[in-house]
Amino acid sequence: MTWGPRTLAAQWTTAVPVLAVVLLIFTWGRSLAPLLVGLASVVLAVSVLAAVHHAEVVAHRVGEPFGSLVLAVAVTIIEVALIVTLMADGGPKGATLARDTVFAAVMITCNGIVGISLLAASLRHRVAVFNPEGTGAALATVATLATLSLVLPKFTTSRSGAEFSTVQLIFAALASLVLYGLFVATQTVRHRNYFLPLTRHGEVVDPEKEYAEGPGRRTALLSLALLGLALIGVVGLAKGVSPAIESGIRAADLPQAVVGVVIALLVLLPETIAAVRAARRDRVQISLNLGYGSAMASIGLTIPAVAVASFWLSDPLVLGLNSTHMVLLLLTVSVGTLTVVPGRATPLQGGVHLVILAAYLQFALTP
């Protein structure tokens, strides 16, 4: 594959981010007609795919596990921006938007991305092989973050309902940042080998050989700039079409929580595509880095962001999960632990995770 800047410039992935930003400029702050909503939706979807491409170019330049981290953080920036902007415009119904979106992201990543990656790899290579040390550390961090941020608010007594007090919210935000920062340091510096792909014989893949044919510095910088444009376009256009999404959900008489599911499905599409590609190349560890890393970034970066935003928003910030979601979270962590410990998985484990995701989606539509 040729990675030269001229080749990259000739691809559609170069034009799409620019088109998305131009369309955003012309539609910002306006009520969109149905035709414009359709156009914005198409450009938004293609911009997501362009973001995947440019994130992967950057990932090939920096290698693993930095590549997975780049894509996870990029996607989470989209999620945080969408949540905060929709909370600012949503009124009282935005009180649960952060909770619904973050929990949807956790379920989609820990069951959807992990499940489909294990299934794709094990069907093609018979058994999916990964490093249980690194993956187990990631799952433990996700479980801790989810419990501190989404479960405990339901049991505190300082505020009525499922809200944190100001002090508790500050603690949850700081704890999220500390745990996420500690994990990133572990993943990229101190125990980097735990997060690198393994061969069939359990040997760590040499990242220098894996990415020896990667893009040059100029191409990587161009892709980084285009990735930023694509993210701006996705965030802005998603905000523009969100009224149409909410109207459609209300017209279908679906719960408000479905808005969070739609946002999570949208922003996690790039990582899902990248994870499946890695799994089919027998690089399951990269897929799991993307899945659990995205769940971790979703909580570790979103909770602090919405905590800061809540200080100027007049509406309450409801973070506590209901009992059904707590059961699904407990099931996800328990099954995930049993999946991770052996370091090998068959299609059965992938199918189990996907069934849990299907159960979550079913209960989201019919609580």
UniProtKB/TrEMBL annotation:
Q: Where in the cell is it found?
A: Membrane
User: Sodium/calcium exchanger membrane region domain spans which residues?
Assistant: 34-188, 223-364
- Classify the source by domain of life: Bacteria
Q: Where are the transmembrane segments?
A: 12-29, 35-54, 66-87, 102-123, 135-152, 164-185, 219-238, 258-278, 290-313, 319-341, 348-365
Q: Which organism is it from?
A: Streptomyces physcomitrii
Protein name (record):
Ionic transporter y4hA
Output the Pfam families linked to this UniProt entry: Na_Ca_ex
Q: Does the keyword ATP-binding apply?
A: no
Matching InterPro entries:
Alkaline_pH_Ca-Antiporter (IPR052946), NaCa_Exmemb (IPR004837)
Record keywords: Membrane, Transmembrane, Transmembrane helix
Q: Membrane topology type, per the record?
A: Multi-pass membrane protein
In the record, what lineage is assigned to the organism producing the protein? Bacteria, Bacillati, Actinomycetota, Actinomycetes, Kitasatosporales
